[in-house]
Specification:
The protein is mainly alpha-helical. The protein has 9 helices and no strands. Helix content is 66%, strand content 0%. Helix 2 packs antiparallel against helix 4 (71-108). The chain starts with 5 loop residues before the first helix and ends with a helix.
Amino acid sequence: MPNPSSPCRLLALATSHWLPRGHLAAFVTSALAMFLFPTTDLAWIPTLLTAPLSFLTAFLPFGPGSGLDTQAGVLANGVWVALLFVCALVNSAVLGHIVTRSATTASEFPSRSPAPLAPRGTDGSQPAGSRRHRLRTLLAPALDNWLARAYLTVVAVALAYFIGVTWVGPDSGYSAAYSLIVTGPLGILVLAVSIPTEFLPVAWVHPVVFSAATILAGLFNAVFIGRFAHTLRTRARR
């Protein structure tokens, strides 16, 4: 059977499962909301949903907030959204590839015997050593390849910048944007968790919650990137 062309395969992977389709639907909804409600600052939502590829649009001389209100400005904003849509397709295709690969691997080894359960204590709980081993196994894809380690380095730099600006002064709104973008699309969840703490009377709670949520989102994305790197490495060996 001949292999489909790259654009067709990209579209097929981007719509192959409910997870990539949900990602595309969220992007389209946020882009429509941005045009329907131009007075509100909603441009950051499509940017977060297409991170980290949305970093490429930062080098464009146009986009939301550039002050272009003419017909050429509207056309430029349309090109900006089209480029973000391509980024959303790539991200959705990666999601579809991971999901499809996981399902194929599970079907290829249906008779594999389950791993033996770790011995439990008298109260039915697993020992701390077993939990630490499972945690190390879970986080291994985030640390055993250069692609995931490079991503974690970017997250660490963005978070260090946020912490440094927060330490120097109270205004850290713009510094938080870098951490939100590099942890996208989970950056939306980071924002949703940290916003309520910004109104608490204790000033240090918001930076701590934001930093912890950023670390968790970064680790999740790094594990995802690491598993994708492992898949590519396995395919290259065949």
